[in-house]
Amino acid sequence: ASSHPQMEEVPLLMGSNCRAKGAAPGFKVAILGAAGGIGQPLALLMKMNPLVSVLHLYDVVNAPGVTADISHMNTGAVVRGFLGQPQLENALTGMDLVIIPAGVPRKPGMTRDDLFNINAGIVRTLCEGIAKCCPKAIVNVISNPVNSTVPIAAEVFKKAGTYDPKRLLGVTTLDVVRANTFVGEVLGLDPREVNVPVIGGHAGVTILPLLSQVNPACSFTSEEVNYLTSRIQNGGTEVVEAKAGAGSATLSMAYAAAKFADACLRGLRGDAGIVECSYVTELPFFASKVRLGRSGVEEILPLGPLNEFERAGLEKAKKELAQSIQKGVSFINK
Ligand code: NAD
Ligand code: LMR
Questions:
Q1: What is the ipTM of this complex?
Q2: For residue 252, which atom of ligand 2 is closest to its CA?
C-alpha cells in the first residue's frame, strides 16, 4: 500500500473516527456513487475487507447517512463521507483503488446503451477528478454501458496525460458470477467450485461465455449451450424485468464488485496467481482473462481454443463492441 497520510491531513467530514491514531496498514479505496443501489452494499462489503484501511464514500446525495451507518461497523477501515462535486477532490486524494458505480440504471425495455447520454457525462467528470487527484489509482468502472464508459475513461485519462491501460478495468465480474451459478445449476455442482471464463464485453451478444473452457472440465448438449449462453447474456435483463422499474442488479453486483476489488487489492499487495476476467484495453477494448499484480493488469492471458459456436459469437461481439467503443471515444473527442 502507499504510505497513509495522518488523519489530520485529510479533511474529516462525516463518519470519521476522531480519536483514531491513524489508519491500519492497508489500502485506501473510494466508492463513487456510494449511496446508490450498488454503492451501499458495496460500501458494506468493502468495510468488511481486511485489506482496506480507509474507505471514502462519495455521492451527490445521501453520502452522510450512508457513511454514518457504515462507520458504526467494528471493522478496521476508517470511513469518511463526501457529498457533492466540491468534495470530489478530497474524496479521491491518496486513493489506491477507485470503484465507480455512479449513474442511472436501466428500466424494463431499455438497453444499457440507452443509459449512455446520462452516464457518459457522469463518468467523464469523475475520471477528470481521478486524473487530477489520484492518477496512479487502479480504477474499476461499473457504470453502464461499460462497453462505452471504459473507453470514455481511457480518453479522459489520455487527455490528462495520465492514461495507464494497466490501471483501468471495466467490471464484468457479474457475468462470471452468473455464469458460474447457472452452469453449477445445470451440472449439479456447487457454484463456488465452477469457473467459467466470460470474454468480450458487458452487453447482450458481446457477453461471450466460454463454455468449452469451464473448470472443472465438462461437456454440454447443444440445448444446454444455447440455454446457458442466452441466460448469461440476458442475466441483467432478467433482473431488470423482475424489479419492474425499480432498477437493475444491485446486490449480486455489489458482491461481484467486492470480489473483483478484492482481487485487485490482492494483486496490489503482490499476491501471485490472481486471474480474473475484466474489460481492459486490447483490440482496443475487450474482456479477457487477466493476471492482476502490483501495477494492475500485468498480463492479458490468451483466449485459449474456441469452438465453432464461440468463434461465431466472437465475431458478433467484436462488431457490436467496435461501435460501442467508438461511441465512447467520440463522446470525449467530439
Ligand atoms: P442507483 O441509481 O441506485 O445508484 C447510482 C448512484 O449514483 C446514486 O446514489 C446517485 O446519486 C449516484 N450518482 C449520480 N450521479 C453521480 C455523480 N455525478 N457523482 C457521484 N455519484 C453520482 O443505480 P445502481 O443500481 O447503483 O446502478 C449504478 C450503475 O451501475 C448503473 O449505470 C447500472 O447500469 C450499472 N450496473 C453495472 C453493472 C455491471 O455489471 N457492470 C451491474 C449492475 C449495474
Ligand atoms: C447487469 O448486467 O445486471 C447490469 O449491467 C445492469 C443491467 O442494466 O442489466
A1: 0.99
A2: 3
